[in-house]
Design goal:
Shape: elongated
Pfam families: CysS_C
Mean pLDDT: 79
Number of domains: 2
Strand content: 15-25%
Number of strands: 7
Order of helices and strands: HHEEEEHHEEE
InterPro entries: CysS_C (IPR056411), tRNAsynth_Ia_anticodon-bd (IPR009080)
Low-confidence stretches: 1-6, 135-140
Protein name: Cysteinyl-tRNA ligase anticodon binding domain-containing protein
GO molecular function: aminoacyl-tRNA ligase activity; ATP binding
Number of helices: 4
Distance between the termini: 35 Å
Radius of gyration: 18 Å
Structural class: alpha+beta
Length: 145
């Protein structure tokens, strides 16, 4: 992490979560609690029942993607390589107040054909101003600002 602990080191969080799980399975609950406290000091809250975690009071992070955005359920297009990494990086930049860098990352996503809706926490693939729909849905026009 940097910037006062705002940027999430996802591989480190994953490693600590794996260590904590191993401690719990071995009934070393004090060690598991120590790891949970370390995660908390990093700004990570762990939800054991749902097997999810979140950073800095934001939405639940998906450990496989490193962000809390979901794919628009109406989207059926292929996922460009690097999409999740860019969404995660953009989220971390926004959380640390680096808005110009976050905007530049949004433009990188757009160059890949990915649009992000921050308010709904959704992303989807676009092509030629149209969303890729699922096979049974008509294409939706992208709104212009």
């Amino acid at each position: 992490m940097d910037d006062g602990g705002v940027i999430v080191d996802v591989p480190r969080v994953d490693l600590l979560l794996a260590e904590r799980l191993a401690c719990k399975k071995a009934r070393r609950y004090e060690d598991a609690d120590r790891i949970r406290a370390e995660l908390k000091s990093m700004g990570i809250e762990v939800f054991d029942k749902t097997k999810q975690w979140k950073a800095r009071g934001k939405g639940h992070m998906d450990p496989s993607t490193g962000h809390d955005y979901s794919r628009d359920p109406r989207d059926g297009g292929p996922v460009p390589q690097g999409t999740h990494a860019l969404i995660a990086r953009r989220l971390q930049l926004k959380m640390s107040g680096k808005y110009p860098e976050a905007d530049a990352t949004r433009e990188e996503l757009r160059a890949l054909g990915v649009e992000v809706n921050d308010r709904a926490k959704l992303w989807r693939v676009v092509k030629d101003d149209r969303y890729y729909p699922k096979a049974d849905e008509p294409p939706l026009k992208r709104r212009r600002a």
